[in-house]
Structure formats: C-alpha cells, structure tokens
Amino acid sequence: MNKNTIWTILGVILAVVIAWWIVSALLSVLWFVVKLALVAAVALAVYVGLRAAFRNADD
C-alpha cells in the first residue's frame, strides 16, 4: 500500500463520519419541528374544545 491509498482510505472514513454526524443533526432538528407541530395542533384542539365548552356553559 502506498501513501495515496492510505490517505484515500482515511478520507473516506472521515467523510462517512462527517456525513453520519450531519444526518443525525438534521434528523434531530426535523424531529423537533415535527414534535413542535404536533404540540401546536393538540394545543389548538384543546383551546377550541375549552372555548366551545365554556361558551355552551354560559348559555
């Protein structure tokens, strides 16, 4: 094995490690956004339900 082959192998390993880290970070951010959207949807449904319940209680 010559010097170029070793550097190529190290470069490939480094590229895979960096790609793994980037994909992991992006998936974490994406999961946070999805979770935030779900929380907002449930909060909106609860708000509408409570508003309707209190409106009917006043009648």
TrEMBL record:
Highest taxon in the source lineage: Bacteria
Alphabetized UniProt keyword annotations: Membrane, Transmembrane, Transmembrane helix
TM helices/strands, residue ranges: 5-23, 29-50
Protein name: Flagellar biosynthesis protein FlhA
Provenance organism: Microbacterium bandirmense
